[in-house]
# Entry
Amino acid sequence: MFESVVLASAACAAALKQAGEAAPSPPPQYHVSGEIVLVSDYRRGGATQSDGDPALQGRIDIRHDSGWSVGAFASSMNGRRGSNAQVSLFGARRFEFGEADLSLGASAVIFLGGDADPFVIAQASVAHPIGPVDATLAVNYAPPQASLGGEHGLGVGLRARTPLGRVNGAPLTAAASVGWSEGDFAMGAGTKFDWSLGVSAEIEGVEIGLAYVDNDLDDERGEAGLVFSIAHRF
# Structure
């Protein structure tokens, strides 16, 4: 009798162990990604934010399977009332509609090393593939606030990326963008147009890119330029 109980207990324990080993672990609900980028010129809206000097940038994103995400972006700069760095904190909610992704969110933009005050931006974007092209339409709106001199800021941009194949095993990607802005985002010009065209290659986990960037400002901020970038994503 005792031997039967021992054997039954051992069999039960073995079965439980086997069941535990067979049970799949739940997939992670949170996903963390980031990048470190060195650019030869920090351009936003086609205009330099670093006086044409190189800038070091970093970004981190934390996404939840529910569609919520938060993150931060930071860059060295030389602009906006003597600031030498910019930090943006953002959050968003993503919705899927078939192949389209809708994102609604907001950002707080903070400047370091100068006299510029922070400001907030409401953001919306729609991404949808068009054949081999990944296209994104984005709208950024900053309501009138003291840090913008009582002005609002509005920016609309269209971005597109498409693979070009491989060269010596390295995947190539072409990218293009066009944007329009007004208010504070037009940098004193009333309205502003900008555009860019670039190509990038990924080599052993490092993306190397070159882009032609331009806008229609009449001063030195409107000068066209080639921007070189090297990025590592994780």
